[in-house]
Amino acid sequence: MKNQKTISLPTAAQYSTPSTHSAARSGRHPAHNTLARVFVLLLICVFMFSTTAFAKAPAIVAPSDLINVVAERTGLPADLDALVNAGYLTAPEKRHLEKYDTFSNAVAWHVLLPAFGLYPYPAEFYPEIAPHPSWPNGTVYADARAAGIMLNLVDPQLEPNYAMTKSDFNVLVQKLKTTSFTLPVPSTTYPFIAVQEEAADATGLEPWDIHTYLGRNSVLSAYHLIPAGWLAEFNSRGWHINFTLPHDHPNPKLLNYVSAGCTNFQTSTISIANPKAITTLHEFAHFAAKYGTVYLDDMEYCFNREASGVANILGLYAMTSPSEYLAEFTAYWLLYPDKQNTLRELAPASADLTEYLIHAFDDQPALLTAA
To answer: Which CATH number, 3.40.50.1580, 3.40.390.10, 3.90.550.10, 3.40.640.10, labels domain 194-358?
Structure first.
């Protein structure tokens, strides 16, 4: 190999003990020569160990392999932008694949399962599967991991954040290509899910696809947190849920953001296109505020007086308008009951308005408009 450094082993003569006279002439003590020989031997051992370890290191799969498999399965171009636009990759995943020569096990599971027509349900619906500390329940990576374990495709002990090896990738893809898998469906009585599945049965189509399964997971995770009065009012007014947005568009209220859901009062529809439970709760809060007679003056009062104090908790989108602030505050309140005391301390008027909104359809007296 060009420029390869050759290491010469000491000869027997070099191992012989030099005379006191020769040591004196060279200005070295015999002990120094012994230490030098030991040092050389140590260097040789380190070199041989490192070479062996390197030779045994597993080969890491290239991002192009993942991209090509997804393109082959979906019929899309082997192009990152095309896969992002179609929903098989997220924008952060795209940036990672562009920047690095590897991807994690979690990313592989999240991307490959839907590409093969397997749409993971929320991981919390499989309580027999212990969450992994790296990806606790509530993320798409936890969902994909749980689905993989249920299908015996994923080792429960495998670290999701490790770079996927080429051998593991090839085994996973081969199993997906050669075996027919059916993902266990959680037992639920949620009407919005049943409506979608019954409509699919009537048309002979699959109920879920790369787009609709995300909204489905949001509703599944949030349903038990939606106040009963909201659900009763929602059904009595003939509203329904779509699991995709009417059209893909940037969020008009926030630059570089895309809409995760929307509430359309003209079509009596809530649309969800994001797997997070807070998205469903946020949109239902808009519905409740409209029909629960929450006055704009109340929302503006809370927004102007208290929004800045909870901005670091609720996030940037809550700061875009009084109505978005109330919807996000209420969704956070419902999703994280252990944080309610903190929210009340920082924003007492907002907490009062939220509690009124939660019980707006429980024959509760109207809240007085803030002065």
So the answer is: 3.40.390.10
